[in-house]
Design brief:
486 residues; mainly alpha; 17 helices
Length: 486
């Protein structure tokens, strides 16, 4: 079930009504309803994969209880590694089995030995990378005695499977989300209305920006050998806004939906394309994953506290692992390594925490310096997304080679159809308007959050009407959320 579907448009009001009008006086009943609704939501894709969520939930629940009773360090480590191996074992099998097998056989072929190995036709369970990391955060925090293990199996199951953020995040920490299932929840009108605003903006991002950009990005990337460098730059720009509109749009809908049920999820995107350097970009892009790797991998490795070699090593580890998390393809690993190269000079010169505030805070226009910094950071990001989108390394290298050729000075051209050209122009105009609205709302939790401070009801409803009209009139052909494949 996807957020921009008729199925979800029917599902959400039913769950909302049951939650607030039937189960509202009983916390355990509310939590049980969330579990049932979440399993229905996830099982809509393939009910067979519900067993994975259930098994992972039970393993980490039992491990958590066992850790609370076990004092011996060696046995506690065994319990922790049981959780890690079970969760990462599932993830590794479904997501990386064929990748490792192909590269293993290729390595032997390189040295003159042929090995016959059959790959498996494995279906990747939707969202497995997200809920795996979410449950691991619980076990690791309990092991480190930063969190008391729960005895409420229903609350824990609701935490693991919470349907708004189950399949594409944000990846919530147990310390933040799990306690919210213990507390009585009452309907908060202001929280709910702001949630609806965020859902509306998320739908606009997905259906108007991402889905339209996807059509042109796919057209250009799929036949990149036929186009000039300037056209390939245009394709990279379309993908840049596709992935942002798609993924941050999903997060907006997830966070807004959670607010309808009285839950607070962490902000996952904080206007990353207005960043002044790559370090700031990674503090604003996919925040839940970046902070997860920071806390559970980067800091345990020593972070930036060691010498020069350790700083370089840890930086490359964190970015390469982040790239590999996204998919079983060398293009993702190179994408991660490229971002490490971008980030490293800032870290080594201790300039990686220069830009902690909002760009042009309190001002409408940025300074010339700020504008140049944002433009440079955005350009580097666009180039890195080429590796993320490319089918393989050969495709990525050929794509980049064409961009850095004399054909980059040609007028972009990818279709002779007047209709396609007109629709492309409308999409580009939509992107510009989208950026203006995002810029105006960059100091809030989401682009439309500033409307909550506007006293004029006519202004608020006019904005809502324009956004709804844009969704109805300008929506592109429906595309699956990109991060479902991760």
């Amino acid at each position: 079930m996807i957020f921009n579907s008729i199925d979800f448009a029917v599902f959400l009001p039913i769950v909302f009504m049951l939650y607030w009008f039937v189960a509202n006086k009983n916390l355990k009943l509310q939590n049980a309803l969330i579990v049932v609704a979440s399993y229905v939501f996830y099982g809509w894709w393939d009910w067979r994969f519900l067993s994975l969520i259930l098994f992972s939930t039970l393993v980490d629940y039992v491990v958590g209880l066992a850790l609370s009773k076990e004092k011996k360090g060696s046995k506690r480590k065994v319990l922790l590694w049981t959780s890690i191996l079970v969760n990462l074992g599932f993830l590794g099998f479904f997501k990386y089995y064929n990748f490792f097998l192909d590269n293993f056989t290729s390595a032997f072929s390189f040295f003159g030995t042929e090995i016959q190995a059959n790959t498996l036709n494995i279906i990747l369970p939707v969202g497995i990378s997200f809920y795996t990391f979410q449950t691991l955060s619980y076990t690791i925090d309990v092991y480190k005695q930063k969190l008391e293990p729960t005895k409420d199996v229903v609350a824990f199951a609701a935490f693991v499977s919470f349907f708004p953020q189950l399949v594409a995040g944000p990846i919530e920490r147990a310390k933040h989300l799990l306690p919210q299932f213990y507390k009585k929840r009452t309907f908060n009108y202001q929280l709910a209305t702001d949630g609806m605003r965020q859902i509306l903006w998320g739908l606009f991002k997905k259906m108007v920006i991402a889905d339209n950009c996807a059509e042109y990005a796919n057209l250009i990337f799929n036949d990149s050998a036929d186009f000039s460098g300037s056209t390939l730059v245009l394709g990279a720009l379309f993908f840049t806004f596709q992935i942002y509109g798609d993924f941050s749009g999903y997060s907006d809908i997830a966070i807004g939906t959670s607010r309808l049920f009285g839950f607070d999820l962490m902000q996952n995107f904080n206007f990353p394309y207005f960043s002044r350097d790559i370090a700031e970009f990674w503090r604003r892009w996919h925040i839940s994953l970046s902070t997860w790797f920071r806390d559970y991998l980067y800091i345990p490795l020593g972070g930036s506290r060691g010498g020069l070699w350790m700083k370089i090593r840890n930086t490359f580890i964190i970015f390469i692992v982040s790239g590999f998390w996204h998919g079983a393809n060398w293009t993702f690993i190179v994408w991660g390594a490229l971002n490490a190269i971008y980030f490293l000079p800032l870290l080594l010169t201790k300039n990686n925490r220069n830009n902690l505030d909002v760009v042009a805070q309190g001002r409408f226009f940025p300074s010339i310096k700020e504008f140049a910094q944002v433009l440079l950071t955005f350009s580097l990001t666009v180039l890195s997304w080429i590796f993320f989108r490319a089918e393989n390394m050969t495709h990525a290298v050929d794509y980049m080679s064409t961009i850095f050729s004399s054909s980059i000075f040609e007028v972009p051209h990818f279709s002779n159809s007047s209709r396609v050209k007109f629709e492309c122009f409308i999409t580009l105009a939509s992107i510009i308007i989208f950026l203006i609205v995002e810029w105006m709302g960059r100091e809030g939790q989401h682009a439309l959050s500033y409307l909550s401070h506007k006293k004029s009801k006519a202004l608020r409803w006019s904005v809502y009407a324009v956004v709804v009209l844009a969704i109805v009139v300008l929506s592109g052909s429906s595309q699956e959320f990109i991060y479902f494949q991760f």
